[in-house]
């Protein structure tokens, strides 16, 4: 059916200052060559099969650690952890603080303490996981490429493809052995720089097994 012109809502052409349209928050734990651990909050990520693709600023300790060590844990916090995440959101593990973050961010070598997070050993990869995050995806680097650079070719943003090699899930969320119960899991959503939990369930896909 073709809409009548008066049925079509009014749209504005704008240049949004923020384009974070609502993706889950993840906390990436990584280590550097001196085994110093770091936590990087991110929200630019998607999963298909056992692949994760993550958008990372190249001037982050997280990106540099992943490129160097080729491993990380992608920890998924539940919605109630947003205050811990905000405690570390203006921190970087890079020292000195990169120029474009100066004045807004400060160096912190122990983000676990700063955010009141407890490390726990991962099963397969070397970086630790975060005990309070109910879903932990242990990953190895598969590939990466630069998405955006400065005019003098300094890398700004990278797309990082990680292979998920081991998945750890809090026992309360596991159903039928190898499924995560969507009625119990409460992801934290980053919606135009505001934190949200999910609303009510509105339906299910024809392929949903549980
Ligand atoms: C909720 C949230 C989501 C973020 N998403 C991303 C992201 O997807 N990619 C990214 O590179 N930085 C993202 N950031 C910013 C990084 O966390 C920030 O650059 C931080 O300083 C990185 O820490 P690091 O330098 O110790 O790795 C996000 C920050 C917050 C609080």
UniProtKB/TrEMBL annotation:
It comes from the Bacteria. Residues 21-198 form the Flavin reductase like domain. The keyword tRNA processing does not apply. The keyword Flavoprotein applies. Its cofactor is FMN. InterPro entries: Flavin_Rdtase-like_dom, Flavoredoxin, Split_barrel_FMN-bd. Keywords: Flavoprotein. It holds the Pfam family Flavin_Reduct. One of its GO terms (molecular function) is oxidoreductase activity, acting on the CH-NH group of donors, NAD or NADP as acceptor. Belongs to the flavoredoxin family. This is Flavin reductase like domain-containing protein. It comes from Pedobacter cryoconitis. The lineage of its organism: Bacteria, Pseudomonadati, Bacteroidota, Sphingobacteriia, Sphingobacteriales.
């Amino acid at each position: 059916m073709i809409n009548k012109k008066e049925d079509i809502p009014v749209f504005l052409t704008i240049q949004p200052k923020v384009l974070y349209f609502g993706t889950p928050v993840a906390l990436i734990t990584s280590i550097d060559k001196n085994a110093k651990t770091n936590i990087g909050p991110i929200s630019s990520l998607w999963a298909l099969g056992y692949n994760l693709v993550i958008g990372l600023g190249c001037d982050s300790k997280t990106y540099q650690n992943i490129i160097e060590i080729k491993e990380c844990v992608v920890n998924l916090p539940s919605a109630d952890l947003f205050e811990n995440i905000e405690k570390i959101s203006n921190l970087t593990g890079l020292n000195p603080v990169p120029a474009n973050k100066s004045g807004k961010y400060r160096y912190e070598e122990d983000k676990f303490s700063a955010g009141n997070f407890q490390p726990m050993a991962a099963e397969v990869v070397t970086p630790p996981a975060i005990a309070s995050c109910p879903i932990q995806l242990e990953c190895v680097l598969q590939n990466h490429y630069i998405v955006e650079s400065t005019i003098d070719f300094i890398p700004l943003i990278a797309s990082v493809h990680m292979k998920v090699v081991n998945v750890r899930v809090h026992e309360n969320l596991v159903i039928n052995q190898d499924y995560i119960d969507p009625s119990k899991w409460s992801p934290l959503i980053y919606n135009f720089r505001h934190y949200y939990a999910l609303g009510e369930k509105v339906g299910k896909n024809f392929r949903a097994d549980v």
